[in-house]
Design brief:
Blueprint lengths: L24 E12 L2 E6 L5 E5 L3 E2 L4 E2 L7 H4 L6 E2 L2 E6 L4 E6 L2 H14 L11 E7 L7 E5 L11 H6 L6 H4 L5 H11 L20
Antiparallel strand pairs: 1-7, 1-9, 2-3, 2-6, 4-5, 7-8, 9-10
């Protein structure tokens, strides 16, 4: 469908993913929707950006490395290891908005243990707020611990306003769609060209923080 001149944006429009930012000290959010299991490689682009590429050897549905899909990253970078990169959506009480949370593995393990007593944290009626601390343990970026504050994780139903926020919540498979092997190959070819031939695509940004 053609549009009026004053309606055009001048190019392809991308859905901006609002992400939760971990802060020093106390943090809190309410997990909602489904969880996205995946592992990710970090590729250094020519412009210095860290580019996340999903490990296609890992099956989101079975949570296993079954190698059903071609994983071209292994051909380009044989020694590169992928890392745990599960994600989910959550309501951030700081502004009441739904955001993507790039989970921290140690924190997730603590949440799963707490769920044995408290139940499913994503349930709209019986779920609970995830309260935890982010603590620096050293000078390096990765010197960080995440400590669940289990006594503060109280079950409560979502408010009417929160229910409205998640009324049209999308699946994480739609929020962060899995790339095809062909798309991954094309991106790898682009970012591994010599610096004078091409730079890493400007539309690919780091999705995660190691801290």
């Amino acid at each position: 469908m053609a549009i009026k001149f004053n309606q055009t944006k001048g190019g392809a429009q991308k859905d901006k993913i609002d992400q939760y930012t971990y802060k020093e000290g106390d943090n809190k959010f309410r997990l909602v929707g489904d969880i996205l299991p995946r592992y990710v490689y970090w590729i250094k682009g020519e412009n210095g950006k860290n580019i996340p590429m999903e490990c296609l050897a890992y099956d989101r549905d079975t949570e296993t490395f079954n190698n059903k899909e071609k994983d071209y990253v292994r051909e380009f970078f044989p020694d590169l290891k992928c890392g745990w990169a599960y994600a989910i959506q959550a309501i951030d009480p700081a502004d009441g908005n739904v955001k993507v949370v790039n989970l921290k593995k140690k924190l997730m393990e603590q949440v799963m243990v707490a769920a044995e007593d408290l139940g499913d944290p994503t349930d709209p009626e019986t779920g609970w707020d995830v309260c935890f601390q982010r603590v620096k343990t050293g000078p390096m970026a990765f010197n960080v611990e995440y400590r669940l504050q289990a006594l503060k994780c109280k079950p409560r139903p979502l408010t009417d306003e929160e229910q409205a926020k998640i009324a049209d919540l999308r699946s994480m498979d739609d929020v962060l769609p899995r790339p095809t092997a062909d798309a991954q190959l094309e991106l790898l070819q682009r970012v591994t060209q010599p610096a004078d031939a091409a730079e890493a695509p400007s539309d690919v940004d780091s999705e995660f923080s190691i801290s």
